[in-house]
Amino acid sequence: MHEIIQPNGWAKPIGYSNGISARGRIVQVGGQIGWDAHCQFHSDDFVDQVRQTLLNIVSVLEAANAKPEHLIQMTWYFTDREAYKSRMREIGAVYREIIGRHFPPMAAVQVVALMEDRAKIEIQSLAVVPD
């Protein structure tokens, strides 16, 4: 079971939660990037890489018999803050298409570079599958 935590009097966040409470089996998803299962990039477009990264997260969750709605935390690392901010509507649409309308607590951080030269985004996630 998951419960969204929203302190009284706080403005409702858009696209994430301030907190979440969960009980069950933990599934840690290592940092995923925008390449396919064979470690091949098909695009250098930021939103395309976000899409593939989210699909990769869902694939790892499925391998653990978990679903996107079990996500309790996501940390997004990207190399271009402006690419992220200027395409938030597209990113939101891709997110809802793949993850759904489940918005766990998230952090978004610009980094200088990622380990793979072509990677523009990396997302690390944590899920809890209810007992």
Which residues sit in consecutive blocks of at least 5 with pLDDT less than 50? Answer: none
Shape label: globular
The main β sheet shows up as: 4 strands, mixed
Alpha-carbon Rg, integer: 15 Å
**What do the pLDDT scores average to?**
96
Structural class: alpha+beta
What is the strand content? 25-35%
Percent helix, as a range, is 25-40%
The ordered H/E elements are EEEHEHHEE
Number of strands: 6
Straight-line distance between termini: 8 Å
The strands making up the biggest β-sheet line up spatially as: 3-6-4-5
InterPro entries: RutC-like_sf, YjgF/YER057c/UK114
Pfam family, one: Ribonuc_L-PSP
Organism: Rhizobium nepotum 39/7
Protein name: Endoribonuclease L-PSP
